[in-house]
Write a structure and sequence with these properties.
Keywords: DNA-binding, Transcription, Transcription regulation. The structure is a single chain. It contains 11 helices and 6 strands. With 287 residues, the protein is an alpha+beta fold. Strands 1, 2, 3, 4, 5 and 6 form a 6-stranded antiparallel sheet that branches.
């Protein structure tokens, strides 16, 4: 960008006119597509063919064919690539419509977890045909829903997510980064997302599990390679970067919104964790 003013980062609503939609990637092009933007819902981007790059939360990824990106609500991304493929949008409410769904459908929280380091999933040639078949089934049912259409789409989506998780684990094995799962860490993510702007002490989160801070740190370290404090600081810094880069808010306003009382302390906190001051980060983003 050529000017020194940041822009309020937009939430792209299209094409989610309901709680679920599926479309070819080419149809998902709007005025927002090539700008940093984010969504209120979960998004699956499957690039069957791609050339260029894709930015997710300030990191650019060089594109390859059969690359799958899983985006949580609020993640910032930007497309700068030639592409073919499919995009799926859905809300958590669509997937878990009631208590019965919570008990019978796959919990995708771990699949969209980026605590092991965010990265796309490379889809193997043996899995791609199965995913393509599920995309076709979801598209057909969504366009012309019959009896129990919503439930049928959810089960097709469920199968798609299960295959994606298997590919994610295969990718981790190929790169010698085995993934560990602990339901308490999934719950911790939800607590952090809800309270990170107000609760900055590990004791608050440990109390929610009736654990000592030391024990909760041991669990998260084993599962994610990070302590609770590191996970919390990572989340605060990410939100600070989003606001510095994509809003008109002052550093002082961002400081207060993230639960800090002293702007000078917040600036030191940001620099210690990001390696650069808040103002310098904003200036670099808009050179």
């Amino acid at each position: 960008m050529s000017n020194n003013k940041s822009l309020d980062i937009p939430y792209q609503e299209w094409p989610l006119k309901s709680q679920f939609n599926i479309a070819p990637l080419g149809m998902a092009a709007t005025d927002f597509t090539h700008q940093p933007h984010r969504h209120h819902h979960f998004q699956i981007l499957w690039f069957t063919k791609a050339k260029g790059r894709h930015m997710v939360d300030f990191v650019w990824y060089e594109m390859e064919d059969n690359m799958l990106f899983l985006l949580r609500p609020g993640q910032v991304h930007q497309l700068d690539c030639e592409r073919e493929g499919h995009v799926i949008f859905f809300t958590e409410r669509f997937y878990f419509a009631n208590k019965h769904d919570k008990e019978t459908l796959y919990d995708f929280s771990n699949l969209f977890d980026n605590w092991h380091g965010y990265g796309p999933i490379l889809i193997g040639e043996n899995t791609a045909p199965s995913l393509l078949g599920l995309v076709d089934l979801m598209s057909r049912e969504h366009r012309s829903p019959g009896a129990n259409g919503r439930s049928i789409v959810k089960h097709y989506l469920n199968a798609f997510l299960l295959l994606a998780e298997r590919e994610k684990k295969r990718n981790a094995t190929d790169t010698m980064r085995p993934l560990h799962h602990d339901s308490r860490v999934v719950q911790l993510r939800r607590l952090l997302e809800k309270h990170y702007t107000r609760e900055h002490q590990v004791a608050f989160y440990a109390n929610a599990f009736a654990l000592t801070p030391k024990r909760l740190n041991e669990i998260t370290k084993e599962t994610t390679g990070r302590t609770v404090t590191e996970l919390l600081h990572d989340r605060i810094i990410l939100e600070a970067k989003r606001n510095l880069a994509f809003s008109h808010k002052s550093v002082k306003e961002i400081c207060y919104e993230l639960g800090f009382e002293d702007p000078a302390y917040f600036s030191r906190f940001f620099k210690n964790n990001a390696g650069i001051s808040p103002q310098d980060f904003r200036d670099i983003m808009f050179k």
